[in-house]
Specification:
By secondary structure, the protein is an alpha/beta fold. Helices cover about 40% and strands about 10% of the residues. The strands form four sheets. A seven-stranded parallel β-sheet has the order 12-18-17-16-15-14-13, covered by helices on one side. A six-stranded mixed β-sheet has the order 4-3-5-7-6-11. A hairpin with a 5-residue loop joins strand 8 and strand 9. Helix 15 packs across helix 16, helix 16 runs antiparallel to helix 18 and helix 18 packs antiparallel against helix 19. The chain is flat and about 90 Å long.
């Protein structure tokens, strides 16, 4: 985690001698803006002088260090004077001999260090050394680290080594300093790679985001300090985020840097240098379509997939073993390219109702889950005879997880074998927190309530020793309508982890709103479940600041408005609700102008074209929902001035969506129909949803 978290402990909260309150992380605000009022002025100069004189209490030291040399002194006052006199910008003005001091190790330039790869046969360790060298070179533009294989007699070393005790597992690591050396001891699979990213983020000031983007904060002292002993061992085994920015060709830039281990749809992670990841054959669902296919059932005289029929069992085992044989014959290794195999219903499979199946249902307490558990247990017993190290996954998913079909009000009497993992597909309320008040017993019009989902999950933990959660944090059908669940995510993941979840398969589409931020935060929580809510909020603020600039507080205020707007609608079934089932249309009517004002204020604080573009892209969903809510009031029945302003804003929004190929759903991008004001924007983007409410 970035060093901002440690700074939380270092920045002193303002005392009575100051008239302002300091934030949790000073680096969320502009350097030189010592009192955090959004400007650099004479008042900041006054506070800086009192700090140098030793008469101030609680001064923001990071904002006061205007030349970024690691201390607050008269040189900072000099830089402040130049800025206020209009003789230079404080963000770029550094007198000779001041400013960023480069990457250091215990105060020594990193160029004096040799990186020692103790096991050159470990491709992940070699890659970790290369990544450290790469980002040091990118950061200062000159340093090329010396990398030694095996051993080195260099005076100063950064030593990469494998943990032989087994304490670090596959992914854990320890970073410590000893005399002049930095020693990394890590899990052989991915540990050294994760340790290097920890150094780059926590000690060297890097931030890594989706699509290969990164930032380097040179306002920080980029140093591996003396006396550190940093151990991190994740206890969530399967960490998989499949939000768009974390997929496929972006694996190197996002998945591995966020310390994710799952790669069910990230095939490019299946390389030795990335540590392979946890790879599942046949993804997460629909595997019966392949292992018990319709043509095989017909050949055996079956009209329907029947799990009580021995022929279904034989077909399934034969096809699963055939696929594993093919993969291993082609060079795949169990534990590397293959870790798990799915044995699951498709989303729309209807449970069989033949006489034998109904008999099992009765024996299991009228639970379909019992029949599935019996079937998968038998399959697992056969598969591990040939492949003892593989893990079998079974889903509670789609119709087979629908309580209305009697699937698992409480799971049946039969439990899953050791070595089988249940992947629980959470389909609760996206607007309320798990384990908290908010959802009613009945839920919304679709019957969605967290109370049922909580009970189902807890019941399943009694019937299996290993459980993953399939979690949807985004809306995949109406991407111009982000979910108002920003604060729920922390609570939900804490609830699942505290109640036994050992992995997460997080699915979503990046619609240009807050989805990538969700992915970042979820990845952090999976790696560090002990993160406090204060740390989570700080990470949220860091993301907003890095992407939208120093006006990030206005965007945070807008997010709070979305949460308030969503709370007016009650329970939400995340992937299946219409836009104005999620948000109050009246709230958007009443508050659209205020929302626009918040974005305008944030835009005034931007420092780069990138930040301005990010804000414009983020504003698209706000304009879309606001203009959709106000179509009758401001266009159909509006004044001439209102109609003109409305038309201009919808045309800009329409053009931005199409010019940037923004997704409307998980499978469609851009608005196909020509621009028009004859219909509500809601119906131009989504023609078949009427007024956007059920």
């Amino acid at each position: 985690m970035k060093r901002f978290i440690s700074l939380l402990l270092c920045v002193i909260i303002a005392a009575s001698s100051l008239i302002f309150a300091l934030p949790s992380s000073a680096m969320l605000y502009r350097k030189g803006d010592i009192n955090h009022d959004g400007t650099i002025n004479a008042m900041d100069s006054y506070f800086l002088k009192t700090s140098i004189a030793g008469t101030a209490v609680g001064t923001d030291e990071l904002a006061s260090d205007t030349n970024s040399d690691g201390s607050v002194n008269s040189m900072d006052s000099y830089v402040m004077k130049l800025h206020l006199a209009g003789l230079g910008d404080i963000d770029v003005l550094y007198p000779e001999g001041c400013g960023w001091q480069g990457f250091t190790v215990m105060g020594t330039p990193i160029s004096e260090y040799t990186v020692v790869v103790t096991n050159p046969d470990n491709a992940n360790m070699v890659f970790a050394a290369e990544e450290l060298s790469k980002y040091v070179r990118l950061g200062d533009g000159t340093t090329v680290l010396n990398i030694a294989n095996g051993e080195s007699d260099a005076e100063k070393q950064i030593i990469l080594s494998e943990d032989t005790s087994g304490d670090m597992g596959t992914d854990g690591f320890n970073i410590r300093t000893e005399d002049d050396d930095v020693i990394i001891t890590a899990g052989a699979k991915r540990g050294t790679m994760y340790a290097v990213y920890e150094i780059l983020e926590t000690y060297f000031g890097y931030s890594f985001y989706a699509y290969g983007e990164y930032k380097l904060d040179k306002n920080l002292k980029c140093d591996i300090p003396e006396g550190i002993d940093n151990t991190q061992i994740p206890h969530v085994r399967y960490r998989c985020v499949c939000i768009t920015g974390f997929r496929n060709e972006y694996t190197e830039s996002t998945v591995i840097k966020r310390k994710l281990s799952g790669c069910s749809v990230q095939s490019s992670m299946l390389k030795a240098k990335y540590g392979y990841g946890i790879e599942r054959v046949r993804a997460n669902a629909h595997s019966f379509d392949v292992f018990i296919p319709e043509e095989d059932m017909k050949a055996q005289g079956l009209s329907k997939r029947c799990l009580s029929d021995s022929r279904s069992f034989e077909i399934c085992v034969e096809n699963m073993l055939e696929l594993l044989d093919e993969r291993t014959a082609a060079g795949a290794v169990i534990g590397n390219e293959i870790t798990e195999i799915s044995c699951s219903y498709a989303a729309d499979d209807e449970p069989c109702t033949c006489r034998n199946c109904n008999k099992v249902y009765r024996e299991e307490g009228n639970q379909h889950s019992g029949l599935l558990c019996r079937f998968v247990n038998k399959v697992h017993a056969e598969i591990i005879k040939e492949y003892p190290d593989i893990r079998v996954i079974v889903n509670a998913y789609g119709n087979s997880a629908d309580p209305s079909k009697g699937w698992h009000d409480a799971p049946g009497k039969t439990s899953l074998n050791e070595g089988i993992t249940l992947l629980y597909c959470w389909n609760g309320c996206a607007n309320h927190m798990l384990g908290k008040e908010g959802c009613s017993d009945a839920g919304n019009s679709l019957g969605v309530t967290n109370k049922k989902s909580e009970a189902d999950f807890l019941a399943w933990t009694e019937k299996c020793s290993d459980i993953y959660v399939w979690y949807y944090p985004t809306h995949i059908y109406y991407m111009l309508c982000p979910e108002p669940n920003f604060d729920n995510l922390y609570n939900d993941f804490q609830w699942f982890i505290n109640n036994g979840a050992n992995g997460f398969y997080v699915v979503g589409t990046d619609g240009g709103s807050f989805e990538s931020m969700d992915g970042q935060l979820i990845a952090d929580m999976m790696w560090n479940p002990d993160m406090t809510k204060e740390e989570y909020d700080l990470r949220t603020a860091e993301y907003l600041k890095d992407n939208y600039g120093y006006g990030w507080t206005y965007i945070r205020e807008y997010m709070d408005m979305l949460i308030e707007c969503g709370d007016l609608k009650g329970c939400v079934f995340n992937d299946f609700e219409l836009p104005f089932d999620i948000y109050s249309k009246d709230y958007f009517k009443d508050n659209y102008d205020k929302m626009c004002d918040l974005f305008d204020k944030a835009m005034e604080e931007t420092d780069s074209d990138e930040e301005r573009y990010n804000l414009e892209k983020l504003s698209v969903h706000m304009h879309f929902l606001g203009l959709s809510a106000l179509y009758e009031d401001r266009y159909v029945n509006g004044t001439e001035a209102q109609r003109e302003a409305y038309a201009a804003q919808w045309e800009w929004t329409y053009n931005f969506i199409n010019d940037n190929d923004m997704p409307l759903t998980y499978s469609t991008n851009g608005i196909d129909s020509p621009f028009t004001l004859d219909i509500n924007p809601l119906n131009q983007a989504y023609p078949d949803i009427g007024d956007g409410e059920r």
